[in-house]
Structure formats: structure tokens, C-alpha cells
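ingest -> validate -> predict -> emit
validate: passed (alphabet ok, no gaps, 340 aa)
predict: started
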Amino acid sequence: MEKVSVIGIDLAKRSFQVHGARPDGSVAYRRKLSRGKVLSFLASQPPCTVAMEACGSAHHWGREIEALGHEVRLVPPIYVKPFVKRQKNDAADAEAITEAAERPTMHFVAVKTEAQQGQAMLFHTRDLLVRQRTQIINALRGHLAEFGVVAPQGRARLGRLAGVLEDGDRVLPEEVVELGRLLLGQIEELDEKIGGLDKKLGACARKDEETARLMTIPGIGPVTALAIQAFAPPMESFRRGRDFSAWLGLVPRQHTTGGKPRLGRISKMGQRDLRRLLIIGATAVIRQASRRGAVPDPWLAGMLARKPKMLVAVALANRTARIVWALSTKKETYQLRAAA
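emit:
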């Protein structure tokens, strides 16, 4: 059997392209396999490195291939693209994955466990239901506005629309009232489902020691804590807190040349869901501090005195990400720094 050091696999639904490379980098074989023959082929190969693009099904295949004794490397697709030569096809993609995985400075994605993917599905399901509820509320507001019934934005003001539909003194077409009640019923049903998921998220967050530790940080609740556990790789894979913040896309974009540093807005090149949750949590912390009048955190008080609130929210989200890395690696709880 021919010795290979790296096997690159271009994943698909039914047809998989496999590229084998020898230790010197030369091509050992190029093969096209059906979905059912991938694992049997890899089982016949000696232990080596198997590389794939980090996509939706890559984590499932990664767990199955690791069980065969191979080392799995998941490469972000954006890092594979520069290695594709001229025309793009499955064979060229598999070869590019192989070459990218051989680079000594390449960054890889950790293979997620089934528990992590289950938590990610729980978060995405709740997020989907919240978006659907918002769409129905906006649809109801828009339809009733055509009949002169205007209500402020927000789910908390929904009672005003419900009161108009139940008010017999106000003349609205019977069909409008019937359809409005139908939309209100859909909103109530979604409220019940989202509430059930919130209870499940809270129970899971309190039960796990790591998420309970993260919830001691201001601006991080059960949803954000579980999202960090589900979407983020092990914190030990980052050398420092700034690396984790950069992975989230919360650091300034660089365009430095000739020794002159040029920093712009945040890069937004990382995990979108976590970045959004951290910024929302930071905004809530700033809003709560503004209501109290006195800000207990000296760093936050100094930033609010000099910068706009939205800019401070992004900076606070960056700082929170670094605190998450510190608490996760040191296994400690959050303690607010006292003013000098």
C-alpha cells in the first residue's frame, strides 16, 4: 500500500473527491468516491492526516474519521481558496485542501462534539423562533397601520394592537379583525415555545460549571454562555485573550504598510452569532449603568466620558471576550476591579 501523509477530501452530498499526497508533497492518487465508500476507503489507509474544509457536515465526518485512527484537520474555506489552481472543480479543491493542511502556519478548526452541535441547534432554533415572532409582530403593525391603527415598535406594545382588535367601538372590517386575531394567536404560540427554550437554556447553563462561571461576567447571560460553549473552540487553543477577540472579529481591521500602522473598524471576520451576543450584552450593561447614574467599573466610566456609547459597546464586547478567555483558562470567577 502506497504511503501517504495527507489525504484531502472535498466533501459533498453524494460524490466525494479524495486527494492523497506523499510525504514529499507529490501526488499519490486522485479518486472519486461515493458517500457510502468514504469510511471503508479511509479504514484501509494507514494512520495519516485527513484534511477537509470546515463546513456544515465536516464535524460529523471528523468524528467518524478520528474513530478510525486518523488525525483530522478542518481548514477554513477562506484559507483554502488561495491554493486552488486556475479552474475550480472537485479535484482541484481536494488538492488545494491537501496543500493548505500541509502549511506549518495554517490555522485549523477544532472538531465539535455531538453535545456542542446539539447546543448550537438549540441556540439556532430559539433564534429562528424569535425572528419569526418579530416578523409576525411587524406584519400585524403594518397591516393595522393601513387602517389608521398605529402602535410603537416592540413586543411590549403589542397589547395596544390586541386592545384595538377586541374593541367593539372601533369600526374595523370583520376580515381584518379575524386575521389580526390569527396573527396574535401565532405570536402567543411562539411566546410559549420561546419561553420553553429559555427555561431549557437556563437549566443547562446553571448545571454546567463552565457556563455558570461565565455568567458571573456582566453582560453574559445563559444564552451567551451556552453560545460560547457551543460555537467557540477550546480556549486553550488561543495563546492570549486578544487572539480569541480577533477570532470573534472584534479587533480593528489592519491595513498597515511601510511601517505605518493603519487601523480601521472592527474586522467582523469571526463568529457572527457570538459577536452579536457580546455586543448586545455590552449595550445592556451600558444602558443599565446610565440608568443608575454611577458606573461601578472605572474603565467603563472613563470610556463613557470620552467616547460615543456605540463605540464603547464594541470596546466593552472586545474586553468581555478577553475576560472570557482569562476566566476559562484560569478557572476563576469574575471580580470587578475597584477604582484607584
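The beta strands are 6-10, 15-21, 27-34, 49-53, 71-75, 252-254, 263-266.
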